[in-house]
Amino acid sequence: MTNRLVLLNPGPVNLTSRVRKALILPDMCHREPDFARVQADIRKRLLKVYGLPAQRYSAVVLTGSGTAAVEAMIASFVPASGKLLILANGVYGERMSKMAQAYGIAHFTMQYAWGAQIPLAEVESVLRTDAMITHVAVIHHETTTGRLNDLAGIGSLCRKYRKIFLVDAVSSFGGEDMEFQKWGIAACAASSNKCLHGVPGAAFVIARKELFAQPGLAGPRSFYLDLAGYFREQEADSSPFTHAVQVFLAFQEALKEYRQQGGVKARIALYRRRAAVIRKYAQSIGLKEYLSGGSLSSILTAFYLPEGLTYARVHDRLRARGFVIYAGQGNLSRSIFRIANMGAISDEDIRRLFCVLKELVCRR
Prior knowledge:
This protein is of the alpha/beta class. The chain is 40% helix and 17% strand.
């Protein structure tokens, strides 16, 4: 493809030709049986990613970004009588706090430095002393820094203190280990355009079925993001609103391709190999990783900007050579940049990237 940009941002990702071609399939009405079959197939395939039993779990799909799915999960599953504990160590944990505040949901946020590991002893202390907490929410892969939070440890505490465990898996679903039943994950939210290599615009929530019909809410908090309404309609092969049909067709194709390429085990292995190559190249040219120790994502790596180089200069030089990287957020915008390794990229793409970075580092 001419003028191809290699997207090394944490979504959207480069598409395979197969997924891209699905965007130009014949037009389809979202109220017709042929689209109902597409929707049902996507829902089934999402459960199969981690081998979840359909008797206990269900997937609901909606048109929107990953943030829409996270907001829907929080607004729909924390009842009026509930209280949400939010564990935040980056931008997206803080975003969940803003969602809870916007809906008037009782909540408490345990705020940590961006990239810090969440101390389980402190979480347990809060769960032990605050009996009003009913739900716990955390980001799995906090792309602010590349920190992978300890779902197994947090989930164990949720089981011990009988709390409902909600996970933002937008940047990890399908690309990192997730053991729903063992870790006690009651619900997770994610999207099509990250580790599943689909097109932006489709998002989903997977949850234990009883959460979609819980009686605790005095009517839905949101009209468009009411997951109970989506669940009822989609169980009847319908949907309450107009979906982005072409995006869903491409999402279905991406899920088919995902399965044929070996599923979650193969994608985890692919990302780990790519991340190792990126980190080895970076070390060879003197780039320093932002995080060290603890659990690190194999999907994204944050690096300190080399002395004497601004993000704008690094970005613009790479953009001119066909690469898109990502800036740091907030106070990190002047000190780090981020490289993700999802999507249809090649070893040669990574090698060329570091040839350009080496030129920059050596000539600064």
